[in-house]
């Protein structure tokens, strides 16, 4: 993974990861480069002056799509004598552009050889990620008088990088160069344009006509300003919540992604650098988190996921009729079916969550037209839950991959291989079922019943769904309750044996409403109790479990996204203080990451480390971490659509002071919400 | 001419209405190139109502492939999105139409769907 000195800029699924000098020298352990549509288009991009590498004095990532590097020749000890400075300014937006400026501070004239080494391995993102490098096609480089063309060809699959500078340069197959003469105080500059092409046999690019906004720097800037202007304003007494909100809003803008099939509309991609693509689960969770602030993302997400809903059995892609996709990729491994992401459907939560999002979106927006438009897709999704997901035949959603080579073993959000275990630490056989997914199914049926009754004119279907939901709730509370622990099992195996470990998943059950009222207090107590709650947040797996590890990906780390839904669930059952405790811990943690919450951080006790320890290979920014502060604000302010109005019922901790959220959009037009911290969270411990 | 392709289009024409395309309207032309020979199939979709003709007419979307690959696509042996990413199938015009129509292609003939364990036990 890139170290801390890497600089990342992005626009949609085009992004650049470089060293702090702006150079790119990719190795399996340093996955830097220029990436687009899941392909690396530059793996080498090294600037030298008179054959010498440059050193960074400083860099600024000005906006998510642009960065500036101040460089000098020579080693660190020579900085003081530098007579030359070099500024690299770069932006992504469709293509990648870099402006070089060289200033001579010397009293003498200088002659300089400026050279950029350029090359590409055209690695598929999956090859970069998994460090597999055995390209089956042919890599080529062609120097032309006015450009350098780097390419990769495998059958009809062709990807090209075309590099051209505004000043005439000498191009060769490994880069390009200029010989220049600078008088004292003279400066020289040039603009380099790097185009990425996904060329079909007719010479047409796959991505033509796709962009939501212009790709020029000014258009990008204008688009970002509009995005911020359109979103509600958040002011906070101590400034901190407001600045975290602003950081999230900008990162969310950066993560907007325009899939090939949506004609320029955008939905949130999952995260930089590995997941700049469409994920069913991540996109839906993010939309749910940001609904009060950016509702239009939900509409586009629902439309695109509905348009790509499964229609047939395809065992390689784990596709079934009615199933909502898991992940879409555009790279070489997807194209040649070495990976199943064209798209891959191996997720069991995206399908019920699709319905949950549609209902929640309607409650906020009043967009009845979309509810009607997606009736067929909702019915197909509900049918999938009943007919295709119940592999054991006992009324639950199960999973077992049919693609045993490249499919996903665990098809819930905790998708690592060892995320599901019994209390003795052993792993259950397949098919497997996890508790939170049963909660989503319950919620989906309850919400679909409302949609059927109010908008689809089908009260009989609504009754049926409510009956099924009630039966599911009863069954679930019988089969999944771990009586001696006072919580719900994380999973179930096909023989009905419980994975009887205490996990964060029980918080999602509160959010879904499947928890029996008289058990909610026990669940809430576990969530803020010492085994699960670290002081910063709720651990994925409780301390004391055999597989607990404070830096175990799904076995002990704290996921901000997970916590935001747990807080929402706590509030749903009336545990406002517990919700505020979780929200407060996560927002405190955000301070240590300049407002940008990582994918996950360590489950260490807060008093032990004093700061949240970032999980080593965490993705950042990641969409559902970015959405987390927004959902926490909603939860603490108790924002809830109610009979066409926005209800506000704030429960903030004392230290948070006054918070105001202005211009919250919805069916009510735009309204403001105000809150003041009055909760003394210390009461909770006693 | 590949019989699979002919059967596929004849079946679409006979079907008249396809619920999966109920929100889709537009025309697609499939140009199946083999050497100097090109066979054209024109599919008109009007909110799910289908009409097929063998004509070379302007269309919102033009799809180009070899006839053999197209036969494999409409019989589920090959996947259209992968073929598109590979460059073996080309599209000009509105890409969304292709991605909608692709959904009515069948799955792979050897795909069996979910393995229900209660069926396995009773099998």
Automatic annotation (TrEMBL), chain A:
Residues 10-192 form the Putative glycogen debranching enzyme N-terminal domain. Gene3D superfamilies: 1.50.10.10. Pfam families: GDE_N_bis, MGH1-like_GH. Residues 320-595 form the Mannosylglycerate hydrolase MGH1-like glycoside hydrolase domain. GO terms for biological process: carbohydrate metabolic process. This is Glycogen debranching enzyme (Alpha-1,6-glucosidase). It comes from Micromonospora chaiyaphumensis.
UniProtKB/TrEMBL annotation, chain B:
SUPFAM superfamilies: SCP-like. InterPro entries: SCP2_sterol-bd_dom (IPR003033), SCP2_sterol-bd_dom_sf (IPR036527). Residues 18-105 form the SCP2 domain. It comes from the Bacteria. This is SCP-2 sterol transfer family protein. It comes from Micromonospora chaiyaphumensis.
